[in-house]
Amino acid sequence: MKIAIIGGGSIGLLLASFFSEEGQEVTVCTRTGQQANAIKRNGVSCRSVSGTEKTYPVSASLIDEYKEEPHYTVVCVKQHHLPAVYAILRSSQRYLDSTLLFIQNGMGHVDSLDSLPQHNILAGIIEHGALKISDHEVRHTGNGKIKLASYRGGIDNAFWGRMITGCFSIEAKDRLDSIMKEKLVVNSVVNPLTSLFRVQNGDIERNAHLRVMAKLLFEEACGVLGIGETDALWEHVRNVCRRTADNRSSMLRDIEEGRKTEIEAISGYLLMIADHKGMHLPNTKFIYHGIKALEP
Length: 296
Hints:
The chain is an alpha/beta fold. It has helices at about 10-20, 35-40, 80-90, 155-160, 175-195, 200-205, 210-225, 230-245, 250-255, 265-275, 280-295, and strands spanning about 1-5, 25-30, 45, 55, 60, 70-75, 100-105, 120-125, 130, 135-140, 145-150, 170.
């Protein structure tokens, strides 16, 4: 299978190594020629959780210069880069018959998927931890699952069934909204807390005061999203912090490197839903403005 991965961040590089390990023909579509050239020269190198390192013969191209007709197109750019990607997916014939898979934080992008012409559109979440070391190197910092569901069309179970033999742990779900809400709750707790206090994910579990704040954010997110049974989900949030204990969240890395964060797509999305429902989320509002104050 030909697989195009749009986005050369930590998740894009990690997925490139995963798919390549399973024998797929992978091309990473990047925003910069510098990164595309680095991948062409060196492939993609991934250091596993156990510390072993392997380099994969992955191709690369600038996003708007990619010429193949991929069977699968995995979109893993940040939310604020999606409009430019949508424009390419709408206008380019090479993506028309491709199955699209969107992996983003937050839920703000889901409603806009209806504007795309492709017949098969999936959306999902990735629970693995990853750290981008350079333009072509990534460190796999925590194991997890990849959960996906169909937004339009169907899921090729034969294809995804072959993907579970290595690093992958694929879980196909019937309801898209359930996995997206689950991921949004995790992100609304972990990302802003680690960013505001400049700590690793595991510190939320280790520090009793951060754990209290995490529970307050968790309860507000579950309340506004209409999630009833929360015990298992709260334990899931804590497990994510344990599994990725040494990770610095993507939002924290954005703050440290002076980039725009995804706070609008996470806490901002929750505040928008709360406003529509006439609900108040004081802790979420505080942490939202705290992150906005740190942005460039």
